[in-house]
Design brief:
Blueprint lengths: L3 H7 L3 H13 L25 H11 L1 H12 L19 E11 L3 H7 L13 E4 L2 E8 L13 H9 L7 E7 L6 H8 L11 E3 L2 E4 L9 H11 L5 E5 L12 E6 L5 E6 L2 E6 L10 H9 L6 E4 L8 H6 L3 E5 L3 H13 L6 E4 L3 H17 L8 E5 L27 E8 L4 H13 L7 E10 L2 E9 L2 H4 L16 H12 L4
Parallel strand pairs: 6-7, 11-12, 11-14, 12-13, 14-15
Antiparallel strand pairs: 1-3, 1-4, 2-3, 5-6, 7-8, 9-10, 15-17, 16-17
């Protein structure tokens, strides 16, 4: 017979008993024990107190639905105390969670793990098979709590597997310590940054360097974010944040080192089996343009000419040369010019690429013009001519250089094709780019051009590429209206005298 009056006395101590019970049966035996003590959920006394009080207490604390709620809450989240942390303290991320497990003989571990792989727990750096400190011949297999039903059992197929191996299908709970190493970068940053604020773990990888574009609300945590990115991405040893937009003529940007080795900005990358080396702090490189590099190169055939006006360190020029094209590559930035030459040698195409360190306009009016005159004067020419202008912030403004660049008349219908990259914030970026190009060229490109979306740079900002064959009326100077006509500025008598001399030359 239950003494309910006694129970009322014990009710205020319910929380205390719960804490003591969990410490006794789910905590570690000592503070420095490597393996937590585990206890089966059912079939064991949870406290020296016997009777209905112990039974009631056990049900209120350890029912499977409540256990799963606790698991789901803690398994993916570091300890709440890390909220607002600005200097990384890895030890603060430790927490203990309860996970479901099965206890098996060690001699069947390998076969059983393969058979149960769909229901095993999956966390970064987490062992799914744990030794039993109380029994050398037994092991704990940790299970994914989402794969355990509310009644505390596995699915029929998994139970059949356990039965095949003569394993008791009863689920036990294991008190697991999670550390910083077990959490993903996104989980860590979500736990640190204020609730409700956007968390991003995306970055551009440039060799061993992670290049981030942090938002204003993330800046107070910038050094912590940089270190987390390094910790959670193999091979990354330095994290930097862009601190301004690319507005300089040299196409580089100011950056701040967030974490890691700030002394080594010289990096090496590979793109489509070609290698590029450069000082990332002094030149421009964007791995997100890899697809665009490939697209442009696919338009070229061996023997074609490529004039790369803003070549950078060579992502268009070098693969074109590898394709046996004749390449003229230019960049105004002395550092880009240096690394462009280096990368041509590195990829063994230095004899196929002529490298220039000039302003884009001077390059077009000088070396490009000279080669165009030579190529367009040939009666039979099988090669195509391509001009790439990959300076999206201002390349479209250089198109006016082509107006009447050449003298004479076209002797070939195969005129150069221009590929010009630019940014657009317009609702209709293709129309916007075409209209701006037409304004610089002084002619309509309707039906004569194609506009491709390269990538979305930012909300309401797209990088586009407009390709078109230069119209003859743009590239060539029109014939003078006075050609073959007497100069009206000359006096009539002088014009008459010259004519007579030609008809009746003096002996």
């Amino acid at each position: 017979m239950i003494n309910w009056r006694s129970l009322r006395i014990f009710r205020p101590l319910k929380g205390l008993f719960a804490g003591l019970l969990k410490t006794k049966y789910f905590g570690t035996t000592t503070s420095n024990t490597s393996f937590p003590v585990t206890r089966e959920l059912w079939g064991q006394s949870l406290h020296p107190l016997s009777g209905h009080l112990a039974v009631a207490q056990r049900k209120s604390i350890f029912t499977m639905p409540e256990m799963l709620d606790k698991i789901n809450l803690g398994l993916n989240n570091p300890h709440p105390r890390v909220r607002g942390m600005t200097e990384l303290n890895r030890d603060a991320f430790k927490r203990e969670v309860v996970v479901p497990a099965v206890k098996v003989n060690k001699d069947i571990i390998n076969k059983l793990v393969k058979s149960l792989k769909e229901v095993l727990i999956k966390r970064p750096g987490l062992k799914r098979v744990i030794e039993d400190p109380e029994d050398e011949g037994r092991r704990f297999i940790l299970l994914d709590p989402h794969k355990v039903s509310a009644d505390g059992s596995l699915g029929e197929s998994e139970q059949q597997i356990l039965k095949t191996f003569n394993v008791n299908p009863e689920i036990i709970k294991y008190n697991l310590e999670l550390t910083y190493d077990h959490f993903k970068a996104e989980e860590i940053l979500q736990a640190v940054l204020p609730e409700g604020q956007e968390v991003t773990t995306s970055f551009s990888r440039v060799g061993h360097i992670a290049h981030l574009n942090l938002r204003d609300h993330q800046l107070p945590y910038k050094h912590l974010i940089g270190q987390v990115i390094i910790d959670k991405n193999h091979g990354i040893t330095c994290a930097v944040n862009k601190t301004n937009t690319i507005e300089s003529a040299y196409r580089n940007f100011q950056m701040e080192v967030l974490a890691g080795d700030e002394a080594n900005m010289i990096t090496k990358v590979k793109e489509h089996y070609l290698s590029y080396e450069f000082d990332f702090s002094k030149v421009y490189w964007n791995p997100r343009l890899s697809t665009e590099h490939t697209r442009i190169i696919s338009l070229l055939k061996p023997g074609d000419f490529l004039f790369d006006v803003f070549a950078g360190v060579g992502p268009f020029a070098i693969p074109a040369a590898k394709k046996n094209c004749i390449v003229f590559a230019n960049d105004l930035n002395p550092e880009s010019y240096k690394w462009l030459k280096h990368n041509c040698s590195l990829n063994k195409v230095d004899k196929k690429v002529q490298v220039f360190n000039m302003d884009g306009r001077d390059f077009l009016k000088g070396p490009v013009k000279e080669e165009l005159v030579k190529q367009l004067s040939l009666k039979e020419r099988k090669s195509s001519l391509h001009i790439v202008m990959n300076l999206p912030a201002m390349a479209i403004d250089f198109l006016d250089v082509f107006q009447h660049l050449l003298d004479g008349e076209p002797s070939s219908t195969e005129l150069p094709t221009v590929h010009c990259h630019c940014f657009s914030k317009h609702d209709n970026p293709a129309q916007d780019v075409q209209e701006r190009a037409e304004a610089c060229l002084g002619t309509s490109l309707e039906g004569l051009c194609s506009v491709e979306l390269v990538r979305n740079v930012a909300p309401n900002k797209d990088m586009m590429c407009i390709s078109f064959r230069l119209p003859a009326e743009v590239l060539y100077k029109p014939p003078s209206p006075l050609a073959g006509v007497d100069n009206p500025q000359e006096p009539e008598s002088k014009r008459l005298r010259l004519t007579e001399e030609k008809v009746n030359p003096v002996a």
